[in-house]
Structures are given as C-alpha cells and as structure tokens.
C-alpha cells in the first residue's frame, strides 16, 4: 500500500513483485487523475494487481476508499507513507494510523514526519527553508511538525506498536557508514516503523 503515491513508479520498476502481490496506490483524486493521464500517454502496462485508489486523506474515509477498490483487510499489508504527514492536519494523520491499527495483525506501516528546526542540522535547516517556499507556492504548506516524542506518542495512542524509530545517526550508521563518497542522510524528516497489534479477540 503506497499512501500519497504521487508519480511513484514501483509497479513498473518491479513488475516481478507486482505479479506476486497486489499493489495499491492511494492519493488525492486530482493527483491520481493526472497520473492516469500520464500512464495512458506513455502506454504503461497495467494489471489487476496494480490498483489506483483516489482518496483525499483530509475529507474522505480511507477505509471506504480501499473497500470500494477491493482491498482485502485479511491480508498482511505493508503501508508505505513517506513524505506525506507534514502536509496533513493531525486529525487526518490519526485517522490513517487508526485504520492501519485494525489491519491484519503483523501488518506494518513505515512513515516519515517532520521534526522541529531544533532537531535539524544546518544543511537540513536550509533544505527545510527551501521546501517551505516551494510547498507554499504550490498551495501545499507544511501543516504538522512533530517532536520525536510526540510522533512516537501519536503512533502509540492510535493503537500501533512502534517497532523502529530512527534518528539521523541511526540511519547513517545502518545505511551510509560504509560509503566513501561522503553522502549522508538529511534529517528534515524522520522515519518510524510501526506494527498492527493482535486483535483483542485473538488468542496467542
């Protein structure tokens, strides 16, 4: 499940995986209409295993949208929600997280959020400044900034279990430490992985 998919190209970059899975892309109806036009213009292949789901996170029910698209809530699912939460109000973030929390136990969500400037290094402050201008000009200002402790608490109170909450140093050590070109991650956003818990009527 790719939430806020935009022009994500996973389904075409990994056709072998699409045949083994069902890939759902969820995004604002206007954005998805644009993407459908691009798909048709480029004559990209589509299949029943690749489903586009038009949903406005702030005004529509994600559960209803997925149900109408044929999503099977009994199947374990990975929800990818990257680069989106900062552009939503907190209530919309909570609604999405609570929806994931009632998915099949063991389902996971990976999401990013934007911490306050006090948690950013100099490069990321400059990056944030640019992003703010570009987003405002596009009519999509940043709406939600979360301190790491608040982001953790938000995920937990929505019924999910935080499995991994990486800071800049964690990401650098895990994925960049062996690089020799000096490339390092920015910390304009942080990453959280959370899992759906066992349902109350389930026994372990």
What fraction of the residues are assigned to beta strands by DSSP?
15-25%
Helical proportion, percent range: 25-40%
Question: What is the overall shape?
Answer: globular
Helix-strand string: EHHEHEHEHEHHEHE
**Quick one: biggest sheet?**
4 strands, mixed
**Uncertain ranges:** none
What features would you highlight for this structure?
204 residues; alpha/beta; 4-stranded mixed sheet; 3-stranded parallel sheet; 8 helices; 38% helix; 17% strand
Written description of the protein model:
The chain is an alpha/beta fold. Helices cover 38% and strands 17% of the residues. The chain has 8 helices and 7 strands, in the order βααβαβαβαβααβαβ. The strands form 2 sheets. It has a 4-stranded mixed beta sheet with strand order 4-5-7-6. Strands 1-2-3 form a 3-stranded parallel beta sheet, covered by helices on one side. Strand 2, helix 3 and strand 3 form a beta-alpha-beta unit. The two termini are 27 Å apart.
SSE blueprint and pairings:
Elements: E1 2-3, H1 10-13, H2 15-20, E2 23-27, H3 29-42, E3 50-54, H4 62-68, E4 78-81, H5 90-101, E5 108-113, H6 122-137, H7 148-157, E6 161-166, H8 168-176, E7 190-195
Parallel strand pairs: 1-2, 2-3, 4-5
Antiparallel strand pairs: 5-7, 6-7
Describe the structure concisely.
The chain has 204 residues and is of the alpha/beta class. 38% of the residues lie in helices and 17% in strands.
């Amino acid at each position: 499940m790719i939430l806020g998919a935009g022009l994500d190209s996973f389904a075409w970059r990994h056709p072998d995986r699409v045949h083994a899975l069902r890939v759902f892309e969820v995004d604002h109806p206007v954005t998805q209409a644009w993407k459908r036009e691009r798909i048709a213009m480029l004559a990209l292949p589509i299949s029943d295993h690749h489903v586009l789901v038009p949903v406005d996170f702030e005004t529509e029910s994600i559960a209803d949208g997925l149900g109408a698209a044929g999503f099977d809530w009994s199947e374990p699912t990975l929800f990818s929600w990257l680069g989106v939460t900062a552009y939503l109000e907190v209530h919309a973030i909570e609604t999405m997280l609570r929806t994931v929390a009632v998915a099949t136990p063991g389902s996971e969500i990976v999401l990013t959020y934007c911490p306050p400037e006090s948690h950013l290094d100099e490069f990321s402050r400059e990056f944030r400044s640019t992003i703010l201008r570009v987003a405002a000009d596009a009519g999509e200002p940043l709406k939600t900034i979360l301190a790491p402790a608040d982001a953790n608490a938000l995920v937990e109170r929505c019924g999910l279990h935080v499995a991994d909450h990486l800071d800049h140093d964690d990401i650098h050590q895990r994925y960049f430490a062996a690089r020799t070109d000096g490339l390092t991650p920015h910390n304009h956003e942080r990453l959280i992985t959370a899992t759906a818990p066992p349902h109350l009527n389930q026994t372990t």
